[in-house]
């Protein structure tokens, strides 16, 4: 059984290019300042498209595509000066450490760790800090109830959420008296498109928002998976009065998992913080 790691709260990211720090969550809003490429910013809050960050004492919004991606090492790993196993080691990064990925070149990730820049063989990075395939996923895509019970999945609350990215399905389980899991719901969902994939791994519900969005859209009943990744409703207009995209069973989001409004609302109102989530 894998160890459940808690996600770090004080998160920093790096800008991938010269980036506008904006007053509002809109590409047409006023620019507070231009943040130089490779600058370190503190993340205050995150949503699917935008991060609220602090930089040089100024607070504003940055579009998510212009910031590094958060990954975790699942073993002790060498940070190297170049993308080659023969290159000089910079430092040994401990397992379960946060690194910020600037880019990926073949099998290597260009990263920042503890203000040091270098390269890590991408195999040693994951979304949750656990090794790949630690669970037996034999039944994950065909019989989710058998998967969660055969693997004796643990959750700190009476519920468990799993999402099957292959078949684009989200499952809600309730704990029985004997510790086994009973399936409550099975829902179609929309996941991240290939260029902005949904994270994989084991996570824990960490807060919620009644809605979020920008000047072009709004989503409702958002329950946080981690960082900017949420379970939330299909898309509404910016005022939240009309559905503008109700597609489910597709891969077209920026990484969040979209659900029918009533299903997103059920999670928002019934699932407690710290509930375990498994996405694969």
Automatic annotation (TrEMBL):
The SH3b domain, residue ranges: 9-71
Domain of life from the UniProt record: Bacteria
> Which keywords fit this entry according to its UniProt record?
Cell shape, Cell wall biogenesis/degradation, Peptidoglycan synthesis, Transferase
CDD domains cross-referenced by the UniProt entry: YkuD_like
InterPro entries according to UniProt = Cell_Wall_Dynamics_Protein, LD_TPept_cat_dom, SH3-like_bac-type, Transpep_catalytic_dom
Q: Please indicate if the UniProt record lists Disulfide bond as a keyword.
A: no
**BP terms from Gene Ontology:** cell wall organization; peptidoglycan biosynthetic process; regulation of cell shape
Answer yes or no on keyword Kinase.
no
Q: Which SMART domains match?
A: SH3b (SM00287)
Q: Tell me which residues make up the L,D-TPase catalytic domain.
A: 159-280
Write down the Pfam families for this protein, in alphabetical order.
SH3_3 (PF08239), YkuD (PF03734)
Active-site residues? 232, 256
Record GO terms (molecular function): transferase activity
Return the protein name.
SH3 domain-containing protein
- Which species? Clostridium frigidicarnis
